[in-house]
Amino acid sequence: MNVELNLPPKVTERAFARLAQINADGPMRALRVAVLGGGCSGFQYDIKLDDPADDDLILKGEGQSVVVDPVSLPFLTGAVIEFTDELIGARFVIENPNATSSCGCGTSFAI
């Protein structure tokens, strides 16, 4: 990987704001960002609402939490977690400097 290992992922204000909207009508949940094997490029992102685990990295902002498990963390070093709202849909996206290629949908990548 081409990024310094001690550079944690960053979450944008827009992503934290969207998570706050999601959590406004229900129980407070963290946004879990994980990397799994699979997808058309070798790895894929798994983004879901979840509760933090004891060994997760917890990124906080606007009263919200984004969590990354220790296995996924090296794949997300230096990444930016963003929320986009475009004509094709609204979603959380990962801008990952470690990815050497990715698929058209943006959920699968190679290192």
Automatic annotation (TrEMBL):
Domain Core: 10-106
Top-level division of the source organism's lineage: Bacteria
InterPro entries per UniProt: ATAP, ATAP_core_dom, FeS_cluster_insertion_CS, HesB-like_dom_sf
GO biological process, one term: iron-sulfur cluster assembly
Gene Ontology molecular-function annotations: 2 iron, 2 sulfur cluster binding; 4 iron, 4 sulfur cluster binding; iron ion binding
Recorded coiled-coil stretches: none
Name recorded for this polypeptide: Iron-sulfur cluster assembly accessory protein
Organism: Paracoccus shanxieyensis
The organism's taxonomic lineage, starting at the top: Bacteria, Pseudomonadati, Pseudomonadota, Alphaproteobacteria, Rhodobacterales
